[in-house]
Structure formats: structure tokens, C-alpha cells
Amino acid sequence: MENLLITGGAGFIGSNFVHHILDRYPDYKVIVYDKLTYAGNLDNLQDVADDRRYSFVRGDICDMGLVEEVVQEHKVDGIVNFAAETHVDRSIVEPGSFIQTDVYGTHVLLEAVRKFSLRRMVHISTDEVYGSVVEGSSVESDNLRPNSPYSASKAGADLMCRAYHVTYGVPVVITRASNNFGAYQYPEKVVPLFITNALDDKPLPLYGDGLNVRDWLYVLDHCEAIDLMLHEGQDGEIYNVGSNNELTNLELTDTILELMGKPQSLIQFVEDRPGHDRRYSLDSAKIRHLGWRPKHAFENALEGTVRWYTENRWWWEKIKSGAYDSYYERQYGTRQVLTGS
Ligand code: NAD
Ligand code: DAU
Known about the structure:
The protein is an alpha/beta fold. The chain has two domains: 3-180 and 216-241, Rossmann fold (3-Layer(aba) Sandwich), CATH 3.40.50; 187-214 and 245-278 and 298-332, UDP-galactose 4-epimerase, domain 1, CATH 3.90.25.10. It has helices spanning 12-24, 64-73, 88-93, 96-115, 149-168, 190-199, 219-232, 249-260, 285-288, 298-311, 313-320, 323-332; strands at residues 3-7, 29-34, 54-58, 78-81, 120-126, 172-177, 179-181, 204-207, 213-218, 238-241, 246-248, 267-270. Helix 2 runs parallel beside helix 4.
């Protein structure tokens, strides 16, 4: 691959991946294509803005004309698709934009791969498509049982990728990763929300009983996996990317508070998320057979993440004081507090 179109590259994982590619592959050109929704942020890419191998196009993946124009103009030969509406709580409030971007938008990119015979598309999916897993771990051939409008939209995109591979031979690889954490994550997701709230001694709103389980993957380990898939994944295949690091939300919160030297009294139990999946768990043997494994120990990576948000208030303060808060006030009101300080 020489000219890589990175859709959604101004978001959390996408921007970490842009840094990864520019660091690792001196000969690659990267074209970030991003709509800059509330979650897209050019601050995430400011340190590569002057790199001659990098260019940015503001655009919607649902805009087939613009996608085709950019693919031709930049002689794109591969696509990595991060572009999506990604927050489960928002999907419960307004599912339409999830269906539009996550399903229809993925179809537009698949069409471009087909029309211009691109070499490879990697589609970034999620463990949430398997639904809640009470026991054991999901393998790639398991049935999809998505429970939120977000995960149902992601499942729709995965099925569209499969159909394009089977029907048209489109060279697409799907990755399904667990919960990522790290720098540049929008502070509506639990890790950056709780770290930044704790920095300001504000309550940490824990949903329900706090015993839902997530598997925590450091974003740079995820980027390594996507890199491997871009170069050595098999067309038409799906690869789980998990870290075997399952924690209840309460355990995660306790760890964050401990690392920050903040009191447990900041925890505030609030009403649960509707349809809240109890647990996700991935069997990642398939990608591990290709040589990938997480390189970062969880506690070290979480400590580094706490440090990053502590040292980069400039990055998150303007987000939290702007659109983010008013969105939440408008859409959700305040969650009912169950117990806590
Ligand atoms: P994010 O919300 O931080 O970023 C999404 C990016 O997509 C933003 O830059 C946004 O502007 C852009 N975007 C949204 N709609 C668009 C559109 N119509 N056209 C072009 N760009 C658009 O998301 P993230 O957490 O970085 O997730 C990236 C991908 O990884 C998503 O597909 C998500 O489903 C998947 N994923 C995320 C996680 C996680 O824990 N964050 C885990 C597994 C998979
Ligand atoms: O599993 C991968 C998925 O992880 C990705 O596909 C999604 O794009 C990403 O948003 C993330 O989804 P989650 O719903 O798991 O992430 P979130 O950070 O929203 O919530 C993590 C857990 O913490 C979940 O059980 C809900 C809980 N939670 C979340 C928030 C925002 C709280 O208890 N309080 C909160 O304020």
C-alpha cells in the first residue's frame, strides 16, 4: 500500500493509527477523510499537519461522489475505515445517524474499492456485534446478536463487507476489537470521562450495579493489529482483537481512582443504560496465530493514559466546556442518581 485513505482518521483510534502509520512507514502517504462530527478533532492530528506525506479532506463517507473523487485524485490503493458513529448512549437517543454512517457509509467505501480495484480495505468493527456474552468467549464464526442501535449498525456494516467479498470478490478484512483506551479519546467514553471528572473532583457516574464487564485494550496495541491486518490479513476474513483483560466497571473505576490518588467517594451509582450488555469477551486465537499480541501491560498503559489527560487539559477542557455538555443536557437531561456521594 502506498496511498492509504484513512476514513474517520480525526477520531480517537483513527488518529492514533495515522501516527502509527507515519512513524512506521516512511514511504506511505496518508489521506485522512473525515466529516468532523462532534467526535472528529483536528487537534488530534496537529503534530502531523505539516508532514508532506499527510493530507486531510473534510467529507462524509456517505458522499459517493466525493469519495470517488478523492480516491482517484490521491491514487488511493487501500482504505482503513474508522468512520462511524460510535457512542452507544447516543445511538439510544438518535439511531438514524448510526444506520446512515455505519451501514450506508461502509457500503459507499466498499463500492469505491470495487469500482477502482483497490488492493485492500480494512473495516474496523467491534466485539459488540456478538451481543452480551454471559459465559465463554466469542469466536469469529459466532452468530451476531447486537443489542443496541450502535451494535446493530456495526453488524449491518460487517454483513455488507461479507456480501461484497462473496459477491464481488472485494478484498476486505474485518477486525472486531474490544474496548480501547488511550490518548485522544472523546471524553464521553468511560475512561476519559472518569479520568477528567476525577481531575476536577466531579462525580463518576457508574451505570447500574457497576458489574458489567469489558475487556480493555490499549489503543496502540489495536493499531498494531490493524497494521498486521492491512498487510497480512486474509481477504474476506474476520479477526477478533481482544486483550484478555476483563474487568467490571467498578474494578476499572477503582483502579483509575487508585492511580490518581482520588477517593472512592467520587463514585456515584446512576440509573442503568437501557439494553446494557452485561459482558463482552473475545477469543483472539486467530489473530494471535498470525503473531499479534498486546505489548502493553494494562496498568502501565492506564497510568500513561491518566498522565496524558492530566498533562493535556488544553485538549479536553474545551471539549467538555462546549458542545459536549450542552449535547448531554439537551438529549439526556441528568441520569437519576441511585446511591453515592
Ligand atoms: P470516534 O467516535 O472517536 O471517531 C469517529 C470518527 O469518525 C470521527 O473523527 C468522526 O468525525 C468520523 N465520522 C463520523 N461519521 C462520519 C462520516 N459520515 N463520514 C466521515 N467521517 C465520519 O470513534 P473511535 O472510538 O475512534 O472508533 C473508530 C472505529 O473503531 C469505529 O468504527 C468504532 O465502531 C470502532 N471501534 C471502537 C472501539 C472503541 O473502544 N473506541 C472498539 C472497537 C471498535
Ligand atoms: O466494546 C467496544 C466498544 O466500546 C466500541 O465498539 C464502542 O464504540 C465504544 O464506545 C465502547 O462501547 P462501550 O459502551 O463499552 O463504552 P463506554 O465507554 O460508553 O462504556 C463502557 C462501560 O462503562 C459500559 O458498560 C457502560 C459503562 N459506563 C459508561 C459511561 C459513559 C458507565 O458506567 N458510566 C458512564 O458514564
